[in-house]
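User: quick one, sequence for these tokens?
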């Protein structure tokens, strides 16, 4: 039977071919196919982790999002770069939030709603002054915090009781101050040595506004030595040292030690600030020393 005869004898075959537009060449592409073509194609996928699969979308690969910028958006949905638009050099007082540079070395600080240009926080004191005579000290410009070290005068030594003078006390205090403010300073005088009536060292006082700091002077030499000065007006309060009792063979008595050190021995003169006067003997002669005057040291 011929091929044309086979087709003519099968109405079902004719119905299947009805409407088919493929050519003979195209139809021959499936010659030898034994299973579904799509199934075979799926089986041919390369096992490569870099190939994006449906399961990757939204997990390891960003899902499509119309809000994500792409090249086609430039100049349409997104402003294209233009040198006439705002750059760093354009920032001035016409821009919202602008803060003037102000003083060199300032930093920007925020109070939660606005930026301000301010000096950086201080890193501690950078200057110190030693004051040995009574005066009114003026707070320097820009200074708002000072540290005061005040020491009272040392007591004088006495021969009658063979004793040295007591040392002046020291008060250390921090003060909040205003620039150009006045700090009134009175330096405690040295106690005067005497055979019979050595005098006490003077009190050193520092007054700023309603705050008064008093460092008491040391006591003049008496029985068993002069007592050290007293203070309770500082953040730190250091009592003056009491003099050492005399040596029975040499009749030498050391003055009390202050915050700055002890009284000088033998014939070397006055000791450090606020120290008590010494009593000693040279060539069978008894010598009494005055105490040392007080001092105020200011750090800022």
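Assistant:
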């Amino acid at each position: 039977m011929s091929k044309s005869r086979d087709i003519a004898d099968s109405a079902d075959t004719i119905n299947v071919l009805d409407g088919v537009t493929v050519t003979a060449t195209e139809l021959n592409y499936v010659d030898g196919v034994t299973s579904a073509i799509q199934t075979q194609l799926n089986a041919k996928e390369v096992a490569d982790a870099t190939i994006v699969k449906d399961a990757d979308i939204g997990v390891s690969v960003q899902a499509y999002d119309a809000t994500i910028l792409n090249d086609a958006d430039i100049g349409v949905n997104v402003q294209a770069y233009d040198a006439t638009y705002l750059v760093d050099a354009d920032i001035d007082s016409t821009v919202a939030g602008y803060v003037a540079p102000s003083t060199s070395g300032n930093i920007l600080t925020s109070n939660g709603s606005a930026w301000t240009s301010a000096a950086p926080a201080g890193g501690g004191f950078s200057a110190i002054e030693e004051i040995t005579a009574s005066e009114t000290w003026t707070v320097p410009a820009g200074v708002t915090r000072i540290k005061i070290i005040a020491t009272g005068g040392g007591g004088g030594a006495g021969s009658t009781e063979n004793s040295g003078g007591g040392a002046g006390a020291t008060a250390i205090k921090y003060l909040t101050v205003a620039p150009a403010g006045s700090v009134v300073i009175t330096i405690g005088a040295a106690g005067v040595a005497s055979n019979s009536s050595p005098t006490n060292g003077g009190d050193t006082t520092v007054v700023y506004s309603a705050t008064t700091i008093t460092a008491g002077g040391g006591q003049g030499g008496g029985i068993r030595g002069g007592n050290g000065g007293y203070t309770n007006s500082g953040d730190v309060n250091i009592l003056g040292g009491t003099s050492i009792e005399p040596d029975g063979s040499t009749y030498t008595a050391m003055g009390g030690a202050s915050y700055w050190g002890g009284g000088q021995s033998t014939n070397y003169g006055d000791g450090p600030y606020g120290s008590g006067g010494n009593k000693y003997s040279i060539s069978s002669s008894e010598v009494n020393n005055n105490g040392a005057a007080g001092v105020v040291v200011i750090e800022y």
